Amino acid sequence: MNRAGARRRGRRRIGSATRLAAFLALLLAAILSITAYETERTFSNQSLDSVTRGLVSEVGSYERAARGTSSSNLGSATVTYLQSRVLPQGETVMVGLESGARLGSSGSQSLLQDPVIRTLLANPQSATSSHRSTLNGVDTLYLVAPIRAGNAAVGTMIVTSNLSQLSTDQNRVLVLVIGEALVALVGAVAGAYLLLRRLLREIGRITTTAASIEVGDLDRRLGDQGTDDEVGQLAETFDSMLDRLQTAMVVQRRLLSDVSHQLRTPLTVARGHLEVLALQPTADILEVRESVHIVVDELDHMRALVERLLLLGRALEPDFLQVERLDLRTFLSDLFDSARVLADRHWSLAPVPDLVLEVDVAKLRGALLNLIDNAVGATTTSDAIEISAIQKSDDGTVVIAVDDSGPGVPPGQLDSVLERFGRLGSADRDGSGLGLAIVTAVAETHGGSFELSTSHLGGCRAAITLPAARDSTGEALAPVGI
């Protein structure tokens, strides 16, 4: 597996950022090339259309000037028109009459050197047409229009425009468009490359961190990226996931260690009794029953221990809680009725606020019964046990407490009692030392906490703090039925 990865790394020559930037460059180059081509083509077409409209306008001006002129006077009218007309730069006019006269504007005499022009002047056309060709070595657009007197064609008018300046403008526009496209291409690719490098660098850090964790370095973290963008959120989520994984692994290792330690004693006791029983040649029936009773008792203890360890192990699973709405007043009233039949104590239930919580009812009830059972075990018939619930005014959290007037827990041993398998005097009923650890797990998975302190009754106070339930609008949930 590692050798395969090494071969893959050895074959990799170009980074992902470079490949993506190259792909983006090719894509943008194709798009910008098409854009530059279309821009140049549009400019060329619009320029030619503009020149053509100018030539058509010139023909129209001559026709208006010569309108009503007889064919015999058409020569003098043409001369008058050409002398009074100021033509745009690069434009020339040549008129050929049926009498053979060739009249033209300044610079038009060079057109007569072209055989095509001479042919067009000698043979009047029936309709106007435009042409583009090289005349005397110059790229030229020219318009050929018949000169009519009545319905008869009496001559030909040729209007030309030098397209050299247009070609120069087209080249200038093309160079400008290509330059702007190159600037945009370089800027876009460079920006994308830098962003990709930054993004992939963070992904590379995540990969390196994951590789370190894979070999056992569970303390590696990405840390704060200093940004609130997707990369920062990814790093924060990744670190949160690592914290949860590390906690789960620590809990798992501790659980396995505790299981191996706690199950060793009952297994050893059961095995010892069975071996002693097997070594006796003739065992008395009472001894056999006593040994079987001891072994069964140890097995029951192991079963209860395993069940509670499994419950603690499941506390980190997402579906550990089956949340539902709970009317606190009704719930504690029912719990109080069930608790006071456990033992002869001075039981009391303090006034309960009329609230609705969102909790796992079964697990919360089990945790409170565990606290009540501990209180019963730590007290005598002359002691008092009180169940109460209050809602804090500052944050709205709900505290459900079990107080007793027993000997209490010394302040120096509060932390050790809360640890898994921690015991003080009387442990829980099965003697596993897991009761308070389970209560803590139930409280924390609800988003709350559990603590032990000195009770106002003089003994121990065991309190579970739960967050206030809210509806989708953020308002506190009202009691059921209201």
Describe this structure in words.
The chain has helices at residues 2-11, 16-66, 74-84, 115-122, 164-214, 230-279, 285-313, 328-339, 361-377, 414-418, 435-445, and strands spanning 91-97, 102-104, 129-135, 138-149, 152-162, 324-327, 346-349, 356-359, 384-391, 398-404, 449-454, 460-466. It has 482 residues and is α+β, with helices and mostly antiparallel strands. Among the domains are: 74-164, PAS domain (Beta-Lactamase, 2-Layer Sandwich); 230-316, Orthogonal Bundle (Helix Hairpins); 324-466, 2-Layer Sandwich (Heat Shock Protein 90), CATH 3.30.565. The strands form 3 sheets. Strands 2-1-5-4-3 form a 5-stranded antiparallel β-sheet, with helices on both faces. A 5-stranded mixed β-sheet has the order 7-9-10-12-11. Strands 6-8 form a two-stranded antiparallel ribbon.
List the topology elements:
Layout: H1 2-11, H2 16-66, H3 74-84, E1 91-97, E2 102-104, H4 115-122, E3 129-135, E4 138-149, E5 152-162, H5 164-214, H6 230-279, H7 285-313, E6 324-327, H8 328-339, E7 346-349, E8 356-359, H9 361-377, E9 384-391, E10 398-404, H10 414-418, H11 435-445, E11 449-454, E12 460-466
Parallel strand pairs: 7-9
Antiparallel strand pairs: 1-2, 1-5, 3-4, 4-5, 6-8, 9-10, 10-12, 11-12
